[in-house]
Design brief:
Strand order of the largest sheet: 3-2-1-4
Shape: elongated
Helix content: under 10%
Distance between the termini: 53 Å
Oligomer: single chain
Number of strands: 21
Largest sheet: 4 strands, antiparallel
Length: 259
């Protein structure tokens, strides 16, 4: 909105001015054309185009290119949430940073220093990703949200790939294994490029530990799904570089780890 349209509903939100990299917090709107900022404004005066951001924001982290599951983030980024959504992750993809939320996928278009200011553009609305449920393989993103599992190549839409396992995901009666969505904060994903697999570790309703003891495994070379049972809780995972330079997936069973 322009300054002429400011009202008290903008109090407590961020003000971003077109010639400024920094943002300012609006403490009060004194009139439709006058506002008070929490921190001193150090820009120039005159006519500006402004953007209003919700002060509620989410800090997310991203990791190395193609390694969405890597331990240790390279940097962090603060961005305004969309429509009250919740940020769940950020990943380097094709020279851009893809930001996932629960119900949106956003894209930062620049390729320079992530510390510089940039507008987060929504690439896909209505689909997002559960935290830690993203795997990137050879430039393709595989992700799980509350609607299912899909493939995303960085465009304006996603491709659903979970038709074979919809009964398990949707909780159809008669299925011996059903996804327990109440524990989705414990779900996670891991890619295994050597075997052309992406594993989505999920909690089933029959889980004894309350943690993932099964995985929905997608073979992206054949397009086939399988349900894997491990007999113990799988807490988290990542990748490790072996002595021969090969990258192998690493899975933690809580008190032990296994390749």
């Amino acid at each position: 909105p322009s300054l002429e349209r400011l009202n008290r509903g903008h109090e407590g939100k961020w003000l971003s001015v077109s010639d400024q990299l920094r943002r300012y917090v609006i403490t009060s709107v004194d009139s439709p054309t006058t506002l008070t900022l929490e921190n001193a404004f150090d820009g120039t005066t005159g006519s500006f185009t402004i953007r209003i951001f919700s002060r509620l924001a989410t800090t997310v982290s991203w990791s190395e290119i193609e390694w969405a599951q890597s331990f240790g983030a390279l940097s962090s980024l603060l961005f305004a949430v969309k429509d009250g959504d919740e940020g769940t992750g950020a990943y380097v993809h094709g020279g851009r940073i893809i930001c996932t939320m629960l119900r949106h996928i956003g894209v930062f278009m620049w390729t320079d220093d992530p510390a510089t200011s940039s507008q987060l553009d929504v690439a896909v609305a209505g689909r997002g990703a559960i935290e830690s449920c993203v795997a990137i393989v050879r430039g393709v993103i595989y992700a799980m949200d509350t609607l299912g599992i899909y493939r995303y190549d960085g465009g304006s839409s996603v491709e659903d790939i979970d038709t074979q396992i919809r009964p398990i995901i949707e909780g159809k009666k008669g299925e011996p294994f059903l996804v327990d969505w109440s524990k989705r904060d414990r779900f996670w994903a891991l890619a295994d490029e050597r075997h052309n697999k992406v594993h989505f570790f999920v909690v089933m309703t029959a889980s004894v530990s309350g943690y993932p003891e099964h995985s929905l495994t997608f073979d992206y070379a054949t397009g086939q799904w399988s349900l894997c049972e491990y007999g113990r809780a799988l807490i988290c995972g990542g990748h490790v570089v072996m002595d021969d330079g090969k990258v192998e997936p690493l899975v933690s069973y809580g008190d032990t780890s296994s390749y």
